[in-house]
Design brief:
By secondary structure, this protein is α+β, with helices and mostly antiparallel strands.
Length: 458
């Protein structure tokens, strides 16, 4: 910024506006569209405005420069920046909408899966209520017939076996219903794998087991329960299909998954281990495979050397993806919280959109008042202009002249022919602030008025 020419300087003072304002406005719009934060750009704008005002004060520029610094520059930078932020907010709103739609679709799949599992549990409960009652009556009837004096020893043995089979079926049905009705986030109570293996050893089952690896932290409850169920089902099958056979249990904890392996040798009486299970006749391993699949793991079963092996891989992160913990009491759903956050952001941006123009108006009004004062104080009424006599000294005409001359006439009027060696001053012929008015030019060589001219504004 350079100091404008003083009175009597024949050179035109530089105009405060320039073509770089359009470039600054475009860059400000891009800044609002590309930058998420608002404090940084506003701080830069405030610092630039403060530096511009300090330069105006140091150079002692006319009021029109102050008006330009306080009104034109902030409007050219602040309003495009707000436009860019509005554009960015609309794009973020659309992008968040698509992200929320994807999240809702995923939640719909989870809800459908939970409904399917709940239906299975209800069906199992109905089966338990109906079949359990019928099977209990069958067992009771078999027990009554076993006491009949007309039966032979063979008949009594068959009835005892029938009653035991029915009781076993009722127990398996009860266990199945209990498994289906277990809460998803619950663990196996206070019973651990160590307790399960200790009971097996106390019952005479030759079990050797080993836990390898270290896992930092606590295993997810579903992984811990899955490990317990795998060992429990494998031990049950080993005792049922290979009585007296040795069992080896291995639990390996890795950084992101746990591997459970249960291997039993052949039965002591020579019967192949897990004959029925290998053929797919056992419901226990089928249900266990479904449980492991729900956890995101894999279950492999089959003959191994001279016995049978059950191996399960359970990922540690599966529970966080497959199940959602219940929301704490009184907490809002995630969608509500995200909606509230979006509304808060919209309110802040709306407040900034209103506060920024209000702050600009606070600068604009004083600058506009200053510019109006400058334009009205440089007005020479036509009656006084007519009373000016060429050749009169300036001291005699000073009472007819305004307090100050108009410092910013158009360049074409400033370059109009003038008397040689004369310093010319310009005055406005009217107080109209919204339209151009004719200008009066007074030329003074050596303190005497030599010419007065009326220069048309158009």
């Amino acid at each position: 910024m350079t100091r404008p020419a003083t009175r009597g300087d024949r050179r035109a003072p530089p105009a405060p506006a320039n073509a770089h304002v359009l470039s600054l406005a475009a860059l400000s719009c891009l800044l609002g569209a590309r930058t998420a934060g608002a404090r940084g750009p506003l701080a830069v704008l405030a610092a630039s405005l403060a530096a511009d005002l300090a330069a105006c004060a140091v150079l002692g520029v006319p009021a029109v420069w102050w008006f330009y610094a306080l009104a034109v520059l902030p409007a050219a930078l602040l309003l495009p920046w707000l436009t860019g932020r509005h554009w960015r907010g609309r794009r973020e709103l659309v992008r968040e909408g698509w992200r929320l739609a994807g999240s809702l679709e995923e939640r719909q799949h989870l809800v459908a899966e939970r409904v399917r599992l709940a239906e299975r549990a209800d069906i199992a409960a109905d089966m338990h209520d109906s079949l359990g009652h019928v099977l209990s009556l069958v067992a009771l009837r078999a027990g009554a017939l076993e006491l009949s004096p007309d039966l032979t020893d063979r008949d009594r043995a068959d009835l005892a076996e029938l009653r035991g089979t029915v009781a076993d079926a009722v127990e398996r049905l009860r266990e199945t219903v209990a498994v289906l009705h277990e809460p998803h986030g619950g663990g196996p109570g206070t019973d651990t794998v160590e307790d399960l293996l200790a009971r097996a050893v106390a019952s005479g089952v030759p079990v050797r087991w080993e836990r390898r690896g270290t896992f930092t932290g606590t295993l997810p409850p579903l992984v811990e329960r899955g490990t317990y169920r795998v060992v429990q089902e494998a031990l049950t099958n080993a005792v049922k299909h290979a009585p007296g056979a040795g069992v080896r249990v291995g639990i390996d904890h890795g950084p992101d998954r746990t591997r459970v392996s249960v291997v039993n040798t052949a039965a002591r009486d020579g019967e192949p281990a897990a004959t029925g299970v290998a053929a797919g006749s056992g419901r226990g391993l089928t249900g266990l495979r479904e449980r492991v699949a729900v956890l995101g793991g894999t279950l492999r079963t089959g003959p191994y050397q001279d016995g049978f092996r059950v191996t399960a891989d359970l990922p540690h992160r599966a529970p966080a993806r497959r199940t959602d913990p219940p929301a704490p009491a009184g907490s809002a759903p995630e969608s509500t919280e995200r909606h509230a956050g979006a509304r808060r952001t919209a309110r802040r941006r709306a407040a900034a959109a209103f506060a920024a123009p209000a702050a600009a108006a606070a600068f604009f009004l004083p600058a506009a008042v200053g510019l109006a004062w400058q334009l009205t104080t440089g007005v020479l009424p036509p009656s006084r202009f007519a009373a000016l006599e060429p050749g009169a000294p300036r001291t005699e005409l000073a009472r007819l002249l305004p307090a100050r001359a108009f410092p910013y006439p158009p360049d074409r009027l400033r370059s109009a022919p003038r008397p040689a060696g004369a310093d010319c001053e310009f005055y406005r012929s009217g107080r109209d602030l919204l339209d151009q008015v004719d200008l009066y030019r007074l030329c003074w060589p050596d303190g005497h008025l030599v010419s007065k001219d009326t220069l048309k504004a158009t």
